[in-house]
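Quality-control log, excerpt.
Job 1 of 2 completed; input and output follow.
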Amino acid sequence: MSAARGRRGGSGAAPSGRRRSTGRPLSGAASRPVPAGSRSGAGIRPEPRRAVRRTPRAAASGTPRRPLVTGRAVLLAGLVLVLLLTLAGPVRQFLAGRAELTRLAAEGTALDHRAEQLEEELERQADPAYTVRQARERLAYVLPGDRLVVVVDGEAVEGDAGTVPEPEDGELPWYEALLQSVAVADGDEEPDE
């Protein structure tokens, strides 16, 4: 037997997958229990192979792969989400209140400016010279002794501001003609022809 061992390379254990010199496979020999202390087949019997599955990434790096999402990460994300949802309402109300304050401040400034304009207008209207000027411009008010020129249909008509023009012969003043037409309409007088 020592000669057979020398031909195989001098090792007492057979490489896995090879057969013994008797021609029987090694798997049959592993099914029998070997009593303790006997040396008959201890050096020849190969150890069974263990199947080890590794992912290509873990095998390449040499370190075991950690999961992408851990329980702590999920808990932390949940707490952050609850915190954001809790703070969303008050933050929105705060921002809406700030916008309302800005709008009211702008409105108050505009009202203050309008109040200043109205006070200036009241001061102008309290001035008698301003009142006379506005009466002349808007109402065509003429002081006694002033000369009024009114343009009607492109013709200039002149007259004294303090006098009423005299009616021509046979013509009644406009107010008498109006009263006469009312009296005729009521049937009190007969029309003059």
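Job 2 of 2 completed; input and output follow.
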Amino acid sequence: MGFMNVMRAATLEQLQQCLAIREEVFVKEQGVDPAIEIDRYDDSPLACVHMLLTVEGQPAATGRIIRYEERTAKLQRIAVLPEYRGIGAGRRLVEAMEEQAWRDGFRRIVLDAQCHAEPFYVKLGYRTVSDEPFLDAGIPHVRMTKEKLEPAFHPEPLS
């Protein structure tokens, strides 16, 4: 597969591309009710941070970041179109979302992963914090979290 790029959706057109990916994955493929799939965070590119991953310029994956608590961001609506699965697009997207969250000053990330995706997030350093799966839009999920690793402090040696 070709060149991957991840950007923050800044225009209405880019937001529409994000929503189209979500409709394909969540509504058509997984049967989620469109009435609960779209919410106030999708009103504009400024309502939250929408990320768009393209492959060779074609929209391929998306996710969004909302403020969950003062220092905690929540990753949501992470979706990769079927034809772009298995090439590292999901990993690339989540890593870019994390970088954005850390840059925005968050120190912790939470996400609700569909159970089948739990091992994927574990590989990316997330740990499961819910005692048992719960249903969201009729699909079993687990709550997962990751803390920002502070760089180790190495004082300059005195010369």
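Post-run check on job 2. The two ends are 51 Å apart (CA to CA).
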